[in-house]
């Protein structure tokens, strides 16, 4: 039986482990955190990701977490619609997206893995192209090493050397909150150098995020964020007021330069370790799920890792670049440019929006 070590127990790592187990591999997941968890954050799963989850056998379970009747679009900070998403056509053309808490998605994936596959509290220190892994509990080796250890990947060093992430110029605060008023709308509000997003979850809570231009590694507080978005349309202030300072997440936004390869020797990179992207298309986790399914499909075949690289690198790097461009537009701060941007968004027909999404959402396994 072929053996694999998956470094990283996030969404991409768990999906890769499940995909490999389902194709007959013996798998060990090494996760440095003492437990597998994700606090205060949701994830958007578009139709391409849901097809990947179908291939993993959990698509219907994840779809059951979605909201049936919601509206979506982009507003300005006064609440005026810039763009409305044609959800009926979206569902018919691609399938409805699902917004789910990351912890819930991880629970669904992990529940499908055999007992003993996931080892927590194990930090990987070094990986060799011949499949040897040095970690805090000793050493191990395998036929395949999967680098699913995020944007600051240790595994990536063996494939590409040192690669410094690129700061996008903006920072994000993310939270999952309880509010008394039911929310049936998801989407974003665009201001000047700042954005706010919200999405209802099936359990009645709301996933929300606040994004604004800031120097890299700048300090900040939730109170400052509340002040920054004060005066924006309802229910933004209520959502921020409900956020718990003990569980809210604050992260600067980065992506990766385009790597020359995702594979070397017995190693394959996936997810943020290979193609960390800004969150402007909601595709970071979606692409990790695609990676996992394709890697498992090809890993046992002759020249399989090279084929994985040829299939995944162009697609994911296209999405990295597109997401960065959208972020640049969404974060415009000069008043004249914001006025032009908002007018352009208003004038863009819904059909054009759907056509632009097709290249990403039409993906199949």
Automatic annotation (TrEMBL):
- What keywords sit in the KW lines? Monooxygenase, Oxidoreductase
User: Per its record, what are the GO molecular function terms?
Assistant: FAD binding; monooxygenase activity
Using the record's annotation, list all stretches that form the FAD-binding domain: 3-322
InterPro entries from the entry? FAD-bd (IPR002938), FAD-dep_Monooxygenase_BioMet (IPR050493), FAD/NAD-bd_sf (IPR036188)
**Entry annotated with the keyword Mitochondrion:** no
Entries under SUPFAM superfamilies matching the protein: FAD-linked reductases, C-terminal domain, FAD/NAD(P)-binding domain
> Where are its TM segments located?
none
| Protein name, UniProt field | 2-polyprenyl-6-methoxyphenol hydroxylase-like FAD-dependent oxidoreductase
The source organism is Nocardia alba
């Amino acid at each position: 039986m072929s053996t694999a070590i998956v470094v990283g127990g996030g969404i991409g790592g768990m999906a890769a482990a499940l995909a490999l187990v389902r194709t007959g591999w013996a798998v060990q997941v090494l996760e440095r955190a003492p437990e597998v968890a994700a606090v205060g954050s949701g994830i958007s799963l578009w139709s391409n990701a849901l097809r990947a989850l179908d291939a993993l056998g959990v698509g219907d379970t994840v779809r059951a977490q979605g909201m049936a009747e919601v509206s979506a679009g982009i507003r300005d900070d006064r609440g005026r619609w810039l763009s409305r998403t044609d959800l009926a056509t979206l569902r018919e053309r691609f399938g409805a997206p699902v917004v789910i808490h990351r912890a819930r998605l991880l629970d669904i994936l992990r529940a499908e893995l055999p007992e003993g596959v996931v080892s927590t509290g194990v930090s990987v220190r070094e990986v060799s192209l011949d499949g040897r892994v040095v970690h805090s509990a000793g050493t191990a080796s395998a036929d395949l090493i999967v680098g699913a250890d995020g944007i600051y990947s240790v595994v990536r060093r063996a494939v590409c050397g040192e690669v410094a992430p690129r700061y996008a110029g903006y920072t994000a605060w993310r939270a999952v909150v309880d509010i008394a008023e039911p929310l049936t709308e998801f989407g974003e509000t665009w201001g000047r150098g700042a954005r706010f997003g919200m999405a209802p979850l099936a359990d009645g809570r709301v996933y929300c995020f606040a994004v604004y231009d800031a120097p890299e590694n700048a300090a900040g507080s939730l109170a400052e964020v509340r002040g920054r978005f004060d005066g924006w349309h309802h229910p933004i202030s209520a959502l921020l007021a409900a956020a718990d300072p003990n569980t809210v997440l604050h992260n600067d936004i980065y992506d990766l330069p385009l790597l020359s390869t995702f594979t070397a020797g017995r190693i394959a990179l996936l997810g943020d370790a290979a193609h960390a992207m800004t969150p402007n298309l909601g595709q970071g986790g979606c692409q990790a799920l695609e990676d996992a399914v394709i890697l498992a499909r090809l890993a046992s075949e002759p020249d399989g890792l090279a084929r994985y690289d040829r299939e995944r690198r162009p697609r994911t790097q296209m999405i990295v670049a597109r997401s960065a461009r959208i972020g640049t537009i969404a974060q415009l701060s000069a008043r004249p440019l914001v006025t032009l941007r908002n007018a352009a968004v208003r004038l863009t027909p819904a059909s054009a929006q759907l056509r632009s999404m097709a290249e990403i959402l039409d993906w199949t396994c």
